[in-house]
Amino acid sequence: GRLEEGIELLCSTGRYPEAAFMARTYLPSHVSKIVKLWKEDLGKVNKKAADSLADPSEYENLFPEFQEALQAEKFLKRERVQMKPASQ
User: Fold this and answer.
1) Gap between the Cα atoms of 57 and 36, Å rounded
2) How far apart are CA 29 and CA 35, in angstroms?
3) C-alpha angle 73/60/46, rounded to 5°?
4) DSSP conformation letters of the chain
5) How many other C-beta atoms are found inside a 10 Å radius of the C-beta of residue 12?
């Protein structure tokens, strides 16, 4: 249920690759924002590697079914927000 908080925690600790993969899996609408942060961070160490990271909003052809993933996220958000804790 608290996916946004998990992604934010990963980003705040500099774990951008993990945040990007988590976002791609569970919150695809956040991928572009995280890829941008990851590129900026990686660019400090290796510009060529940073330039090789692809953003789905710029390279849709490299992310098959990404639009469907965005639709699924919207559909599932209602259920995720209404989830009850396991203790109930």
Assistant:
1) 11
2) 11
3) 100
4) --HHHHHHHHHHTT-HHHHHHHHHHH-GGGHHHHHHHHHHHHHTT-HHHHHTPPPTTT-GGGSTTHHHHHHHHHHHHHHHHTPPPTT-
5) 9
Count CA atoms within 13 Å of residue 52 on its CB side. 5
- Calculate the alpha carbon distances from 16 to 22, 42, 54, 59, 62 in Å: 10, 9, 14, 19, 19
Q: Which two tokens stand for residue 19?
A: 């945040």
Instruction: Name every residue whose Cβ is closer than 8 Å to that of residue 23 and which is 6 or more positions away in sequence.
Output: 7, 30, 31, 34
pLDDT at 28: 96
pLDDT in tens, 53-85: 999 999 999 999 999 999 999 988 877 666 666
What is the number of other CB atoms lying within 10 angstroms of the CB of residue 60? 12
